[in-house]
Specification:
The complex is a heterodimer.
Chain A lengths: L4 E12 L2 E12 L3 E5 L6 H8 L7 E6 L2 E2 L4 H7 E4 L11 H11 L4 H14 L15 H13 L5 E5 L7 H16 L3 E6 L2 H7 L2 E6 L2 E6 L1 H7 L3 E7 L5 H9 L4 E6 L3 E6 L2 H14 L4 E7 L3 H9 L9 H4 L1
Parallel strand pairs in A: 3-8, 3-9, 6-7, 7-8
Antiparallel strand pairs in A: 1-2, 1-4, 4-5, 9-10, 11-13, 11-14, 12-13
Helix pairs in contact in A: 3-4
Chain B lengths: L1 H20 L1 H8 L2 H12 L6 H4 L4 H20 L2 H9 L1 H6 L7 H27 L7 H29 L3 H17 L12 H7 L3 H14 L2 H34 L1
The chains are: A alpha/beta, B mainly alpha.
Chain lengths: 323, 259
């Protein structure tokens, strides 16, 4: 596939004192895609993001946005990107419109040009009616919308979102997802960090799982799930003594990739459930194993995350790794 | 260059808007506690203070210079607070991710703090005027007082911003602030002249740039140009050195925080 490259990260390292926040990572973001950096807190995704938006200088390695180095050509890069910070970076005493006007001046827009763009953006994020109220009267969702409007004001080629839905209620979350998808249809490249697996799964075309400052795996959510080796059928058997027999019978069946004994029965990875399920049931009948419970799961991004980092995203790092 | 002014103008206006949105805060900014020092402390010590010691017609006219410089001190040391909040809530990152000159945010803060401080100094001199304290050097003297205040304020604001960029939490910031401000006042000629202090205190006070500022402002109010000029010349030199040191430290802290 030959796609235009929006961001090129090459052997990026960022060290604080002796702590390696980002440890030799390389990846590319294609123009027009939604790219996710997924990882637990402290994994290095925010550090990576802040390097891309020129706020951090790499200890070694480099990052380029549309071919422009984020250190040497920082000013040029800043004109190409929009940034939506993680915290609600809102001045509570300014109105929504004043936020956008301030940024208009910082991007050196003329008054007329800024006014036109601000009206468009306020309409886009549905804040027209509240544009002239101080931001301290806004709800969490409205603040986030204003954040996004601020990020879009420079008419960027790439929009960076740092944890866009952190702490939002479900409805606001879905609304933000809608915006992000709409921006993609307008041709914008979106790079976002998140520690929500469902968000990465729903929204990202491709994502990198980051942990301990390193990229553990990278690909589309579907690719990553398939790479795990297919769907899982979990059997709970009534008689545990027949487990071994059933395992041996299933092991070499064509639609089955692997069989693993669990404390209740068997976990069977299958390539296609349509073929595998009848075969499993047939073998169980033939061997006289009575099945108490049968569960069928497609691998979720959670499974991908666990497979690559050795723990669930909500579990904190073991002490030894954090130091 | 045109871009630079556009940035600084917009950023400075942001500080002005913020202040004007908080009506109470604005009121208290102009009629601030320093005024009470002048009115209450000045009149309270009228009879307790010895004219032979203060070398002034009354204590309030002696205190006026101290209160002016104390105002500069408090404003300057608090000058970085808003940047600290900007840093903590991510607003600073948002500003710095735009293609602005790296110094614009800081410069806008200097302009705002200097502007507010000058207005407060004028209010204080105005109130002092009501208590019959007429600056001996006239309007030009008042302008000179503002200039000295700004020179001192720049360095103080730089210290405050350097702290804002370096501290881990704003609790630390306010602790250091509280710790700095009172000794600076007591170890200066704000409340009593150096000659009337215990030896060790007057010794320490000589290293306090605030003393030099007050010793120049005081004759501008009390005596006249001939006595004031040498002090003014001296304070300009002291402040140039002070500002250079503070700006150097501030720039280092800023670069470390933003690099």
């Amino acid at each position: 596939m030959d796609r235009a490259i929006a961001i090129d990260v090459n052997r990026l390292c960022k060290t604080y004192d002796s702590h390696k926040a980002v440890d030799d990572i390389s990846f590319q973001v294609y123009a027009g895609e939604i790219f996710g950096l997924l990882g637990p807190n402290g994994a290095g995704k925010s550090t990576t993001l802040r390097t891309l938006i020129t706020l951090l200088h790499p200890t070694s390695g480099s990052a380029a946005v549309f071919g422009h180095d984020t250190v040497r050509e920082a000013d040029l890069v800043r004109t190409l990107i929009g940034y939506v910070p993680q915290e609600r970076a809102i001045d509570r005493f300014l109105t929504g419109r004043e936020h956008l006007e301030l940024l208009g001046a910082l991007y050196h827009l003329s008054k007329a040009e800024a006014a036109k763009r601000i009206d468009e953006l306020l309409t886009l994020v549905e804040l027209n009616a509240h544009a002239d109220r101080p931001a301290k009267t806004y709800s969490g969702g409205m603040k986030r919308k204003l954040d996004i409007a601020c990020g879009l004001l420079p008419n960027p080629k790439i929009l960076f979102l740092d944890e866009p839905t952190l702490g939002l209620d479900v409805q606001s979350r879905l609304r933000i997802w809608e915006y992000v998808r709409m921006l993609k249809t307008r041709g914008l490249t979106v790079v976002m960090t998140t520690n929500y697996l469902d968000e990465a799964d729903q929204l990202c075309d491709r994502l990198a799982i980051i942990d301990g400052g390193k990229i553990k795996t990278l690909g589309s959510p579907a690719e990553l799930k398939i790479a795990l080796g297919g769907d899982i059928v979990s059997l709970t058997l009534k008689e545990q003594d027949r487990t071994a027999g059933l395992e041996a019978a299933l092991k070499h069946q064509p639609a089955i990739t692997s069989v693993r004994t669990t404390d209740k029965g068997l976990d069977i990875r299958v390539e296609s459930p349509e073929k595998a399920l009848p075969a499993i049931l047939e073998s169980a009948n033939r061997l006289g194993c009575s099945i108490e419970f049968i569960q069928y799961n497609r691998p979720r991004l959670d499974d991908v995350f666990i497979a690559h980092t050795g723990r669930a995203i909500t579990e904190s790092k073991p002490e030894a790794e954090t130091t | 260059m045109e871009h630079y002014w556009q940035e600084i103008g917009a950023l400075t206006m942001r500080w002005v808007k913020r202040l004007s949105r908080e009506k109470f805060s604005m009121l208290f900014t102009l009629v601030q506690p320093m005024l009470f020092w002048l009115i209450f402390f000045g009149n309270l010590f009228q009879r307790a203070a010895d004219m032979q010691v203060t070398q002034a017609p009354n204590y309030i006219s002696f205190l006026a210079a101290g209160v002016v410089v104390m105002t500069v001190l408090n404003n300057g040391l608090a000058g970085g607070v808003d940047l600290l909040f900007d840093k903590e809530n991510g607003f600073l990152e948002r500003l710095m991710s735009t293609p602005i000159h790296r110094t614009s945010v800081i410069l806008s803060r200097f302009i705002f703090v200097m502007g507010i401080t000058s207005m407060q100094v004028l209010v204080i001199l105005g109130v002092a005027f009501l208590f019959d304290v007429h600056p001996a050097t006239g309007l030009l003297g008042v302008a000179t007082i503002l200039l000295i205040g700004m020179m001192f304020g720049v360095g103080l604001t730089a210290i405050s911003m350097a702290m804002a960029f370096s501290v881990k939490s704003h609790g630390d910031f306010f602790s250091v602030l509280g710790f700095l401000s009172l000794p600076m006042i007591f170890l200066s000629s704000a409340l009593v002249p150096l000659a009337a202090m215990p030896g060790w205190m007057s010794f320490l006070a000589k290293f306090n740039p605030m003393t030099w500022a007050i010793d120049a402002v005081r004759p501008l109010i009390l005596s006249g140009w001939s006595e004031a000029l040498p002090h003014v010349g001296m304070v300009v030199i002291v402040m140039l050195v002070f500002d250079a040191l503070c700006l150097y430290g501030g720039a280092k802290a800023f670069r470390r925080a933003m690099g």
